[in-house]
Amino acid sequence: MKKKILSLLVVLAVLAALPVFAGGQQDADTGEAAPYEIAYVLKSQAQPFWEHVRIGGMNYAKEHPDKINATLYAAKDDAAVEEGLGILENVIVSDPDAIVMALINPETMSTIVDKADVAGIPTIMCGDSVKQWTDAYEAEFLSYDYGGGEMAGEFFVNYCKENNIPLEGKVAVHSALAGLISLQNRCNGFQDKVLELAPDFEFIDWVYSDCDPMKEISLTQDQMSAYGDDLACIYLDAGPTLPAAIRVFDEQNVSDDIVLLGWDSSPEAISGLKEGQLKGLILQDPFGIGYNCMEAALNILEGKPVKKDNLMPTVIFTKEDIGTREAAEFLDPTLKEL
Predict the structure, then answer these.
(1) Do 75 and 84 contact (CB within 8 A), yes or no?
(2) Which residues is 222 bridged to in the sheet?
(3) What's the rounded Cα separation, in Å, for the pair 78 and 104?
(4) How far apart are CA 192 and CA 211, in angstroms?
(5) For residues 50 and 73, what is the distance between their CA atoms, to the nearest angstrom?
(6) Distance, CA of 97 to CA of 297 (rounded, Å)
(7) Helix (H, G, I), strand (E, B) or coil at 123
(8) Nearest residue to 104 via CA among 31, 29, 181
(9) Which residue among 196, 213, 215, 264 is least packed, with the fewest CB closer than 10 Å?
(10) How far apart are CA 172 and CA 153, in angstroms?
């Protein structure tokens, strides 16, 4: 019995003598704390929104080089579901300390969150939610999509009033992808608010561009032909195809007859605002989403409390908002890249 007690005391003494590290694993060569390995998995870098998310997260990592080593992964485009799944499967095998992940398809990729949880890897959701299918994530940072849609609906009705446009006619909703909850929320928020404030507007069946600019051109042209003067507004819920719609408005010279509203910044969207084809640009805060996700990952790894569900506010920019430094950095976070 005395030998067992003595052995236990020796083990405790050795454990007490070990240093406590603030970073990840101990570096075998230096004996110092190594940075946490964080896998930063984005939908793609094909769209400006995800490029801006990348900048936000990587800026935070660069501000904390002693704490974070972030490795970037991305599919070729937003619709590359199978590629995204393969990337995440490989990331889990690589056993990072945490995963910050943007989801191409939340229902499909919720299984990845569950696998990471079983492997003991905390996951932070970036821009989309899996809470409808699993609660195994540690935190999520989302745009307030429904609220942003409501904001766009109120903007549209007020724009019509201010410009003596009748509060009636057809309203078209163009969604980038079917089945994505965040996009559905943007469209529902817009439609609900418009009908609340101006019930004489009529929403035609939603159409889906599948993130294909050429399909967006056809959808826009077809609706202009089908509804003519009755078409009051076209609303796009995501950035990938907004430049295509702006192009059609420019070519058809209909900017004074139909209100075009869309989400997410791009050089074409900013130009569309300046030239007048686009009346309102609904903006998420992709830089802030990425920055907050990476900060949350570090806090979780360091045992600090982190709120699980977080909604990031949206704003609407018009032609009059262009020109200030603050607006420029919000529209183009590359200006803030470290």
Answers:
(1) yes
(2) none
(3) 6
(4) 24
(5) 12
(6) 9
(7) strand
(8) 181
(9) 196
(10) 12
Distance CA 85, CA 102 (A): 11
Write out the chain's pLDDT in tens, 338 residues. 434 333 433 333 333 333 333 345 555 555 567 999 999 999 877 778 888 999 999 999 999 999 999 999 988 776 677 888 888 999 999 999 999 998 767 777 889 999 999 999 999 999 888 888 999 999 999 889 999 999 999 999 999 999 999 999 999 999 999 988 889 999 999 999 999 999 999 999 999 999 999 999 999 999 999 999 999 999 999 999 999 999 999 999 999 999 999 999 888 999 999 999 999 999 989 999 999 999 999 999 999 999 999 999 889 999 988 888 878 888 888 889 99
Task: Tell me the C-alpha distance between 242 and 236, whole Å.
Answer: 7
pTM of the model: 0.73
Report the distance separating Cα 158 and Cα 123, nearest Å: 41
Instruction: Count CB atoms within 10 A of the CB of residue 298.
Output: 22
Q: In the numeric block, which tokens belong to residue 56?
A: 């936000």
Domains of the chain plus CATH, in order, are: 27-143+286-312+324-336 (3.40.50.2300), 145-276 (3.40.50.2300)
The DSSP code sequence of 165-204 is: --S-EEEEEEESSTT-HHHHHHHHHHHHHHHHH-TTEEEP
Rounded CA gap, 139 and 313, in Å? 17
CA 90, 93, 96, 101 dihedral sign is positive
